[in-house]
């Protein structure tokens, strides 16, 4: 499932899904035009002046902006707990420009019951912070994903210097599986191999 609140980007997402569909080995993708947050309903989504040059800068307005000239539109808001219901999730990628805590709060019982195995997300707050504390309380081990010449490598978050900025984080309910997946150096996408699980 893929979720995108901005109408223009959502249409591009649907177009990309349509192009991927005939490719062998790709699972069916459900696209949802909504912002993930802590409550169902509607929410303001802002597009800053720099959005034209970096369309990853759009964000839910409550997160605050860093570019001048922000404009906003009202978009649908969903709790992922209500959207996903009882479906287990192998990997969840969260890129919400400062709105991470609300997204994870909206996961509710999905996280508490461990129905999301792995979550990759950005967090620009020094550790510990409300996001990492929430995930720890839900039973997740947190790792900083460091990029090394030999490829990406996870470092257990308590081992990272406290107060440092941990931009790329990975939360998992299965830390042993995670470390095994990263055991072999290099970039899997450059080996021409597909990951089935």
From TrEMBL:
Superkingdom field: Bacteria
Ranges where the Methyltransferase FkbM domain occurs: 4-141
Identification of the protein by name: Methyltransferase FkbM domain-containing protein
Organism in which the protein naturally occurs: Methylacidimicrobium cyclopophantes
């Amino acid at each position: 499932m893929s979720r995108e609140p901005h109408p223009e980007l959502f249409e591009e997402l649907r177009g990309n899904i349509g192009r991927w569909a005939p490719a062998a080995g790709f699972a069916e993708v459900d696209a949802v035009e909504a912002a993930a947050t802590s409550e169902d309903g509607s929410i303001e989504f802002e597009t800053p002046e720099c959005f034209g040059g970096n369309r990853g800068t759009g964000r839910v307005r409550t997160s605050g902006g860093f570019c001048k000239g922000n404009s906003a539109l009202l978009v649908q808001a969903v709790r992922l707990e209500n959207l996903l219901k009882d479906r287990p999730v192998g990997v969840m990628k969260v890129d919400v420009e400062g709105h991470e805590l609300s997204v994870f709060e909206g996961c509710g019982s999905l996280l508490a019951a461990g129905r999301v195995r792995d979550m990759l997300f950005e967090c620009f707050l020094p550790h510990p912070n409300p996001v990492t504390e929430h995930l720890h309380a839900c039973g997740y081990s947190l790792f900083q994903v460091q990029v090394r010449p030999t490829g990406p490598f996870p470092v257990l978050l308590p081992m990272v210097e406290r107060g440092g900025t941990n931009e790329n984080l990975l939360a998992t309910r299965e830390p042993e599986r995670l470390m095994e997946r990263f055991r072999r150096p290099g970039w899997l996408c450059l080996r021409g191999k597909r990951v089935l699980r």
